[in-house]
Amino acid sequence: MIPAPYLLYLGHSTDFAGIKTSRGLAAFRPDDCVGEFRHDDCPLTLGLPRLTIAEGAARGARTLVLGIANSGGTLGSDLVEDAAAALEAGMNVAAGLHQRLRDVPRLAELAKAKGLQLFDVRDAPANMVVGNGNPRAGHRLLTVGTDCSVGKMYTTLALTEGLRARGIVADFRATGQTGILIAGSGVPIDAVVADFISGGIEMITPARSDDGWDLIEGQGSLFHPSFAGVSTGLLHGAQPEAIVMCHDPLREHMRGIPGRKLPGLKECLDANLQVARLTSPNVRAVGICLNTSQMDPAEARDLCARTADELGLPTTDPIAFGTDAILDELLCTAPSARSTTASR
Amino acid sequence: MIPAPYLLYLGHSTDFAGIKTSRGLAAFRPDDCVGEFRHDDCPLTLGLPRLTIAEGAARGARTLVLGIANSGGTLGSDLVEDAAAALEAGMNVAAGLHQRLRDVPRLAELAKAKGLQLFDVRDAPANMVVGNGNPRAGHRLLTVGTDCSVGKMYTTLALTEGLRARGIVADFRATGQTGILIAGSGVPIDAVVADFISGGIEMITPARSDDGWDLIEGQGSLFHPSFAGVSTGLLHGAQPEAIVMCHDPLREHMRGIPGRKLPGLKECLDANLQVARLTSPNVRAVGICLNTSQMDPAEARDLCARTADELGLPTTDPIAFGTDAILDELLCTAPSARSTTASR
Questions:
Q1: Using the beta-carbon criterion (under 8 Å), do B230 and A228 form an inter-chain contact?
Q2: Is A66 helix (H, G, I), strand (E, B) or coil?
Q3: Looking at the structure, do residues B204 and B310 belong to the same domain, yes or no?
Q4: Based on the domain organization, do B149 and B243 belong to the same domain?
Q5: Considering only CB atoms, which residues of chain A are within 8 Å of chain B?
Q6: How many other C-beta atoms are found inside a 10 Å radius of the C-beta of residue B251?
Q7: pLDDT in tens, B270-286
């Protein structure tokens, strides 16, 4: 576990896409974020107090989170400089970049000398095993998508919060670097060796018998030719009782592949259910989540209503309109939940 | 490329499953194998001359191939001793074990001192990129299976030889350690990072315009809950014009998972075609290959005939009965091959 509270790093970033990990932490772990660190040329803010490294340490920050993405995922000299300053001030450092913190001798030596930790959240865990698909106890929901980056993590987190608000035990299970920093644990499923995709998911969602839910962050899409293998292993390892499908209605082509159309919603839903049935024969779709952040609210509501009609499933933007309709569907229709729903 | 000819290592092995890599080389690269090396307690033979390390070197062997599997995939002291002797005698050493040759200091130092190479064929290549699924020129066939270890590699090699025997340019594209040693190159697709499954296959089967065929060794099964992610990425990366499905009629449950039934042949074929269509909309199934090595020949022929009737596809045991029926189907019905078939 990565020690909280955090100081969130924005550095010299100039666009919101580049700070998505820091942004995710500010959105979903606000109580654990003491402030943001940015240089004078960074025009962005997460709405948190702007602090220097020393001020962050003085306010109790235990970890500087390098929650940014840069071209190539490398640790430039400015990042190393700022990470070293955090270590000098007594903070741990966490990052999800391709280049590992521990591979920078200066940081490795400094952390050792100070008795602090470097967290490379893209590291796959050691001692992984292959999945087996054997039935296991517990309620599990997986988010799937028509494409990459259509809101699966936000949806999963929103559903987790929604269940908790109803007094139901619910745990977010992270599979990507931002999610892992938000949850404090997880498996970076795109970074494990191919044989261990489903096994990695089985590992982070073991059998549970407390009537609580594991809400598992999906990755990729069965219809993305780069990443469908990951999505397939995720479906099999998750053994989900329920799936929620996420979609970006304004996406013009599959991410990174100009000219390749997105699948139809019905086609995508059917394919996900079919693949999921290998390890979860009674899997059910319980809702559709649309990312309507760039749409007019009235249009967005209208699109949700039309989509719900077409697919016969509750459809919402989980951030704009909440998750209640999906949670109602989940708790009433998930077969193994039905017996306990009446008492809730 | 791993320098041939080879001296094949059997060591202290006592069962045929344990020497499958050496066996594959003896079967498919006989002209490149000068002999076999085994200790006195090894009751097995590949029918090659039994040679000491020194005799192997004297007969021109350039590489000792540790073509064995042992529990845990580790390099025991006996293996290290024999590998060191080969290096001392001037041979390179190749292995596909989990533990890497280069991680044994004695072997690494000896190889360096002698100017020889250590080949760890389970290493994924550096600088991998994600797949894109964009259409590319060339004829490609992929073998798929109802399960792991049902004869996909043998089938792929037999089809390659069959095409060559008809005067057609054909290249075997290896995706597993035995296949890579047989081919001399390839990508160990179960060992690449999950994001690069389809990209790894695109890399080893680039566009070709010589009217020749790439025959791609399949892995796993869409119906194996441990490895379906790998099989999915392989289908997308291969972008196959044709698939051949392999099956072991005597297999009682999915490999390694007691109690899990194999899929039906029709169900498995349909699922593979559906997944393949994402990057190869006109993909066709051109045959079924049954491993009948443990069956009575008359029963085997009868089963092939019944399976052919049921599925409407040529069905054979490629080792026992050859591949002609499948090659006829491939060369007559593959849409982009049709125009050139008449002249063959």
A1: no
A2: strand
A3: yes
A4: yes
A5: 130-134, 189-195, 197-199, 222-223, 225-234, 236-237, 256-257, 259-260, 271, 274-275, 278-279
A6: 16
A7: 999 999 999 999 999 99
